[in-house]
Structure formats: structure tokens, C-alpha cells
Amino acid sequence: MADTVSPMGATPGAGLRGAAWLAFALLVVVVFGAAFIRFAQGDAALESAVDAARWSYRVAAIVFVLVIAGVAVLAWDELRPAARAVLGAQVALAIALTFLGRITPSSDHPLVAFGNPLGGLALVGLAWWIVLAASPPMARARPLLGGVLAAAAFAAIAALVVWTPGLAAGLAVQLAATVLLVAGVTLRYRRGE
């Protein structure tokens, strides 16, 4: 396997990079599917689109869990200790959100209302961190700016829960929050963690 590097090496192999990118892409589908369902639900004209989004959301979530479980089992030795911790947090959060999602339709509790969208965004951030850990070295980190952008992303999603806008505005804020989070994690990330 010429493409892999020992745990002490600088960059994990291409297989891990591909799996990390796949996990990230699947989470983007999950987060936007959930947002679409949340903002379009109740609109009779979009009923079939909501059903399709619900199906896509579930398939992407299941495949995501399989991908990160595979990464955890097959690429564990390629990851640095901090990346292992992030991957473990990602698995734990995915499991917690699975249980939280089971009670979502029947609960108006603030923990449920905020937990799903904020937890989904946190999963996206963790997935992006794994993408960065599996990628070649990059420019120097700017942790303060990265933290501000990440905090802004979570604030935007929290505002969505309280505000509950229409479909277009809700998806636009979801997109902005996702971009802010990816930028924030990128700026906070330091090679070698």
C-alpha cells in the first residue's frame, strides 16, 4: 500500500481521504434534507418533495454511519490521537442523534428542537475536521477567527429554530451556517493535532 503513511507520517492515505470526503458529503445531504423537511413540512404542494427528502435523508444517514464505522475500524492506525478522538466523538454524536431523532416528531421540548439541528451541524464540523486531518498540510491556522466563524454558524442555526422562517430563507441560513462552520473549522485546524 504505497498510498498510506505510518501513524507517525504527515498524511494518511487516499482511502481515508476518500472516506472522509464521502462522510462529509453524506452529512451535507443529511443536514440539508433535515432543513428542507423542517421548513417545507405542512406545505401541501411540497408533500412529495418532503417524502423524497425524508427518504434521501435516511439513506444518507445510514450510509454515513456505515462509512464512519468503517473508517474507525479500518483506518484507526492512520489517524493521529486527536483525529481518533474527533472520530470517536463523531460516532458518539451520531448515535445520540439517532436516539434524539426517534423522539423528534412527538416532542416540542427545547432540547429536541435545538438538539437535532445543532447536533447535525456539529457532525458536519467534526466530519470536516477529519477531512482536514486526512488531507495534505495547509496554511497556518487562525484559531480566534475560526472560533468566531464556528460560533456564528451555531448561532445562525439556533436562530433558525427560534425564528422558523420560510423554506427559501431557512435553506439560505442553513447554507450560510454550513459554510461558516467549514471556514471556522478550517481556520482552527492545526496540522499535527
Topology:
Elements (H helix, E strand, L loop, with lengths): L13 H27 L6 H28 L6 H23 L6 H24 L9 H21 L3 H22 L5
Helix pairs in contact: 1-2, 1-4, 1-6, 2-3, 3-4, 4-5, 4-6, 5-6
Residue share in helix: over 70%
* Rg, Å, rounded: 17 Å
Give the SSE string: HHHHHH
- Report on the biggest sheet: none
For the terminal residues, how far apart are their CA atoms? 24 Å
Report the average pLDDT across residues.
86
Q: Which structural category do the helix and sheet elements fall into?
A: mainly alpha
Total number of beta strands: 0
Tally of individual helices: 6
Give a verbal description of the structure:
This protein has 6 helices and no strands. It is an all-alpha fold. It has one domain. Helix 5 packs antiparallel against helix 6. The longest helix is centred in the N-terminal third of the chain and has 28 residues. It is globular. The two termini are 24 Å apart. 33% of the residues are buried.
Structural features:
mainly alpha, single chain, 75% helix, disordered N terminus
Short description:
The protein is mainly α. The chain is built from six helices and no strands.
